[in-house]
Amino acid sequence: MDGHHLHRIGRYGRSLRRFWLSSLQAEFEYQLNLVVELLAVVGNLVGSLFVLRLLFGNGASLGGWSWDAALVVLGLYTLLDGFTSCVLQPNLSQIVNHVQNGTLDFVLLKPIDSQFWLSTRSFSPWGLPGIAAGLALIGWALMQRSSAISPLGLLIGVVLLVSGALILYSLWFLLASLSIWFVKIWNATEVLRYTLVAGRYPISAYPAALRLVFTFVLPVAFLTTVPAEALLGRSSASWVFGSLAAATLALVGTRLFWRYALRHYTSASS
Amino acid sequence: MLPSAGPIVRATGLCKSFRVAHKQPGLAGTVQHLLHRRYRRVEAVRDLSFVIEPGEMVGFLGPNGAGKTTTLKMLSGLIHPSAGQLEVAGCLPQRRQERFLQQITLVMGNRQQLIWDLPPLDSLRVNAAVYGIDEAEARRRIATLAEMLELGEELHRPVRKLSLGQRMKAELLAALLHNPAVLFLDEPTLGLDVNAQARVRDFLADYNRRTGATVLLTSHYMGDITALCDRVLLIHQGELFHDGPLEALTSRLAPCRQVRLELQQSVPAEAFRPYGELETHHGHHVQLLIPRERLTDQVAALLANFPVVDLEVSDPPVEELIGALFRSAGAER
Amino acid sequence: MLEYRAEIALWALSGVLPLIMLAVWRDSNGAATAGLSGAQLSHYFVAAFVVRQFSVVWLIHVFEEDALQGRLSPYLLQPVQPLWRYVAAHLAEQATRVPFVAVMLAALAVLQPSLLWIPSLSQLVLGVLAILGAFALRFLLQTILTMLCFWSERAAALDRLALIPYLFLSGLVAPLQAFPPAIRRLADCTPFPSMVAFPAQLLAGEAVDVIDGFARLALWCAVLLPISLVLWKLGVRRYGAMGA
């Protein structure tokens, strides 16, 4: 790697730091939010645990998953939901505003990658309680189990979690960048957020047809169930490979799609 | 920063046309639109060629929809030309290379890049990081520009609490932080009151003098153009109508000059017919239009033949001339 | 217009939560424990889906923007209570949802005919009335939260908070029959079951106490209406004082 590249990476790093510092400063003006968000996280978690308990009833499993194992899935969902609130929602919901107000032009004129800017410009600290609660729930559920988690299982689990987060990001980004063509479908990402709720429960709890949908169409399986399997020490090579392949495909896909969207924008706008 | 020799902007045969989907109103139109779209080609810019030297301040004139903004966007790389060659600061704008983006800036009077809820300083720091300007240097540049723009504690107040004029000045600061060599300004004084307009104008002149940056500016206010630009490009129906000094444009649009006479006693209107076109005739006051090339002879003759108390020769106001041109353009469409 | 329909269709799609919950509930031990049959579950959740579609309220988002952009001031000068304007807009948009919901139900009928049933006329009439009541109740509750816009910049955050008990106690994600008795009693003390469970049970043709259900709806509306009107008055006074 030559000096030019290092210099460039440094500039991206410093930009990211500045992006997030300025977002934090703006958000901390609203301290009431912290209380609201903490209450929301606790409320959602209690509610989800309650419904999960109801789904278990007198039985010992949900779709073949024990209570502790299902808690890991719920924890991963909470974690990813926090990630969505921290990064995805505040950034990607802005794309449509940029298109509507014509401020996308300013983004395109910055000597920095436009996808990088649009995906990282804001950071909302209000998703952090969700991330913390998710981590706590995963940790607690894993400790309840008789067998200790293996370092390899943990490593694979973390890799698959990152891979799931990248798939989630790609889906959001794809839908959000559609607003370059269709401003009116700005709420497509809301639909995504509501349907991803399915990730609160292990994929095997769903009927077979939906399992296919949640794996290949709306890859909910890769977001929570697959990393949970790894953390529980029962991941299979095919799922690990599938998740990594899906993430790679999704990332390359967003990149190509964004280029295509920009080509459209720069040739069609006036 | 500036290339040592050669023009900084070179446009040759620049064209831009859009495909606009054409939809009939009503449900039937919508269905038809879905099944078989009909498109109409709109030619926004046609065969535009010009060259700008480093350090020039050039005004871009034309009615709404004449293609000014489209041209500025092509020059800054935001939209791709349909045909023609374009070179700005030694680069092909549409490739939007970092080297190019570091050298240009675009200010749009109707859009803002500063974040509404934050003080301008936050946005400035973000820009500094993105352009790779280190913090000490950024502080120095902000201080210099803020002094030139007469901005002080406004930089620490949320943008939404600033007046329109203060906001525009802060926008300029944000757009100039990276010391661009070429400035594209699209209506930078839009909506500002007279004082704020004058201050922005003074700043731009001062900035151009100090840094030698090239400025390409569009404005609805002739005052901006007359005050700042020695050279104007007038775009008319997507084509270049005039390239040169503003005075040359005036003489071209108005081949006559206006001569107003005050007489000791009233003279019948017929007496003035041989000298030029009679505009008004009220007793002692007479107003004539005289072709430029015959002006001196005719004025001398008027002074010799009539009891003239006072005489005034003037150009028709340039706003009126251009306005008339634009109106005739509108009527043609 | 077409694009506007796309927007509505997407909003309609975002209400699929009860259908997802149905998929999880169907083969769960929880359903067996609560003694709910497959048909009961599917009728209930499909009905809950329909109820949710036609009782969505988004007042707080449009109102906040109208107040910020100054569009509220001209409304205040008109002789009609401005809240009616928002009620009308909600009802109109819900009417445009009808075809989308019909298409989604038709798709369900093709994919899984066993999920659907034909309600009797009386069930349908009572169900629609109950949905309107549920909408009124949701609208009043959100009006109260919306009025807090005049005092706090983060009223929308409070609304998000109010959504949580609605989500878990209304019967949207779990039938109330599956609740443990203590929590069921707690839920019945809140207005939330009237917003989903009651109309959904009516539509699904479950045995419910119709009089009791409508009485609860009326009671909650009677409690919330004066509060929202008082807050409206205070809020508008404050809006005027701010000179917006």
Write a structural description.
The complex is a heterotrimer of chains A (270), B (333) and C (244). Chain A has 270 residues and is mainly alpha-helical. Helices cover 74% and strands 0% of the residues of chain A. The longest helix of chain A has 32 residues. In chain B, 36% of the residues lie in helices and 29% in strands. Chain B is built from eleven helices and 13 strands. The model of chain B has no long low-confidence stretch (mean pLDDT 86). Chain B folds into two domains: 243 residues, P-loop containing nucleotide triphosphate hydrolases (Rossmann fold), CATH 3.40.50; 60 residues, YebC, transcriptional regulation domain (Alpha-Beta Plaits, 2-Layer Sandwich). In chain B, strands 5-6-7-3-8-9 form a six-stranded mixed beta sheet, with helices on both faces. In chain B, helix 4 packs parallel to helix 6. Chain C is an all-alpha fold and 244 residues long. Chain C has one domain. Chain C is built from 13 helices and no strands. The relative contact order of chain C is 0.14. Classes of the chains: A mainly alpha (270), B alpha/beta (333), C mainly alpha (244). Chains in contact: A-B, A-C. Chains A and C meet through helix 2 and helix 9 of A and helix 1, helix 2, helix 3 and helix 9 of C.
